[in-house]
Amino acid sequence: MPCSREGIRKCGIAFLITNILLIGIGTGFIIAGTLSVIEVPSLESDNTKPLLDPVLSDPFQAGGMAFGLSTLIITIGLVILGVAGLGIFLISGKWFQIKRMSAIYAVVVGVVIICQIIFMIFWCSLLVNDKVEEELKDKLTVALKENFIEDTTSNIDSISNAWNYMFMKLDCCGVDPVLSMTNDFDQTPWCTTSGSCQTSHSNIPRTCCTGVDESTYSSAPASCHRNVTSGTYNTKGCYEALKEKLLSQSLSFICLAIATFVIEIAAVIIAIVICLCFGETKGYRGKCCGILFGDIAMQIQGDLSLQRQQDVTAEKRGVRHGITNGDGLTKTSE
Fold it and tell me: What is the DSSP track for 24-78?
């Protein structure tokens, strides 16, 4: 029986455990959200800012949306911590209105669950939204075709320099994956107007070669930038590399969200059971009670029953030792 002494004791323990788990999950949300928030600014160094700033700072583009959702995730984590704190405060405190407090807790957690469902729908829509992905990819493609003029980091064009820095920073090349000598660079000024590509000395930038940095890219091997030999250059496109960075915590968010739903639903059910059990116990609303580890059960099933037993015993004793006076009234003997 859920409202038996042992049943309510188990509910109290289960309620405490679920709220402790919620503290862990809320902390996980905050950590994952913070890592995601940090990830976006980390992509923008002084060298890559001219290229990435228009993409990542716009709240309606992929970068801005990822940043906004990450901030929302931190907020959800804080709310979960607050809910868990309320639950532990309820379970460990002494209250005159346990029924009302349990009902408030169930309602608050229910609202949080609804908000999390809305968030998950919004997050999943971002993951599968082709329009958002196309806008990010189109911006990168235009920036490459119009501004990439040289495979160096000291050119007069800051966006061209930013591309070279990003190739080395994210270990990527071009916008789409580079699979052969025919690639995204064929339509850039570097290949059509002037540059080592236009003179057939290079087919991909030297900054796309594996293992190079700002001080070594100029000596990249010809097997990489001229012959495009497999294994000597970064094949991953920068669009895919950026997307991975922006959504690096997606799996963590989804796993945490699923675990949160399960635990919060369990907490709501337990809170409702506690609420109903107190509703069934009449005459107890005015008594103070503790819930931690079955104090409810001990007081409802123990203290209340003992009080009722004492009342019945006293009544029987008064009848057994009473005398009737002339007016028909019972008078207790001394």
Answer: HHHHHHHHHHHHHHHHHHHH--TTTHHHHHHHHS-TTSHHHHHHHHHHHHHHHHH
